[in-house]
Amino acid sequence: MLKRMLLGILLSIPFFSWGFQSEASTNIPDRVSLDGIFTSDVGVSGNSATVVDDTAIITNGSANQVGALWSTPENLLDFTQDFNMVSYVNQGAAAAASGDGLVFLLKSAGNTFTSSGAAMGALGENRYQGALGIPNSIGIEFDLYGNKASADGFFDNGITGPFNNNHIAVVYPGTSTGYTDNFNIFGSTRYVNHHSLITNVNLASGNWTRLELNWKANEQDYTKGILTFKINDQEPIQISPEYLNSQIFQNGLSSEAFWGFTGSTGPTYKADQRVIFERVPGLVNADTSIRMFDGNGQEILENGTVNGGSEVTIAIEAEWLSGKQNWTDIDLTTIIPNGMNLVENTTKVNDEIIEDSLIWADNSLNIPSGIIPNLGEHNNNPTNKASITFKAKIINDDFYSQSITSRLAGRNAVYESVPFNFNVADVTIEAKILSHQNDEVILDNDIDSFLVEFGWTNENSLLLTHSIQLEQNGQFELIKEFEGTEIEVSGSFTYDIFESFLQLPYGQFNLHYNVTNQETGATSSAKIALYKQNAPTVSISPLENQSIFTVGERIPLNVSISDRDSESIRLFGKLSNNELIDFGIYQLSQLEEKDVALEVDTSNLEFGKYTFELWGVDAEENESDIARLNDLFIQGTLSITSFPSSFNSGPIKIGGGDVKVEDMSPVTVLDQRLFNEEWKLQVNLVGSNFVNKNNVTSQNYFAHDSFLYYKINGEKFSITTTPTDILQSKEDADGEYTLDQEGENGFYINPTNSMIQGTYEGTLNWNLISAPI
Question: CATH classification of 285-425, choosing from 3.40.50.150, 2.60.40.740, 1.20.1740.10, 2.60.40.10?
Answer without folding.
Answer: 2.60.40.740
